[in-house]
Sequence to fold (226 residues):
Amino acid sequence: MQVALLPRSSIAKKALMAVTGAVWIGYLALHMWGNIHIFQGQSEFNHYAEFLREVGEPVFSYAQVLWIIRIVIGLSLVVHMVSAWDLYQQARHARTSNYAVKRVVQANYASRFMRIGGVVIILFVIFHLAQFTWVALPETALTPRVNPYANVVIGFSNPVTVLFYLLALASLSLHLFHGVWSMFQTLGFNSRRFDGLFRGLAVLTALVIPLGFATVPLAVMFGFLR
Ligand code: HEM
Fold:
């Protein structure tokens, strides 16, 4: 079943995936960079979390910019996932014979991995929102909402949570690598001459963002943040 609201052409769906993926990369880069404030201490980090709500004042009212960002990344996530599902269905129906060429089989492995990794990431995001945004998990519910620093430290005091985060970040890394690489191909930046540059950018994104995120749970686990 294909989604009627989306364009029919697979190129247009891939372009939608590239643009919505780029929105998420921008968000993740800023979120990761913002998280690093935690190394400046509790009051700086909590101040930063409050700033996220006050940003844009007085032109925008309290938390309005934050809500605009939430709507943009929420819609981008939905369009990204629905386009991926649609492309998958389209490819499944178009497939009439078994693969004869090795490269096609490899591409099929990569896209299967993207689907599985995508599911891991979405499950992670739901858990993550429950933990830090909705403050709905038993271990964080006791901490006042106004103290994100304490929520982070308490949250990562559980080694199982840290392990889950690291697994999710590993999935994110592979997803970013293949995603960024495909994004350049889709947007037409695929001249052989610049292949090395685009591959390098894909590797850089896949390393810097997840490793930057991983510093926080690891710092709590090893007692640098308490
Ligand atoms: C592992 C390190 C991470 C830490 C320590 C962290 C920390 C946080 C915190 C404290 C909040 C709540 C901010 C607030 O309400 O003041 C938050 C929100 C959020 N995080 Fe993360 N995060 C991490 C990784 C990620 C990753 C990898 C993703 C996505 C794949 C992500 C996506 C989000 C989203 C979508 C929100 C909701 C933003 C909002 O609506 O306010 N985070 N994060």
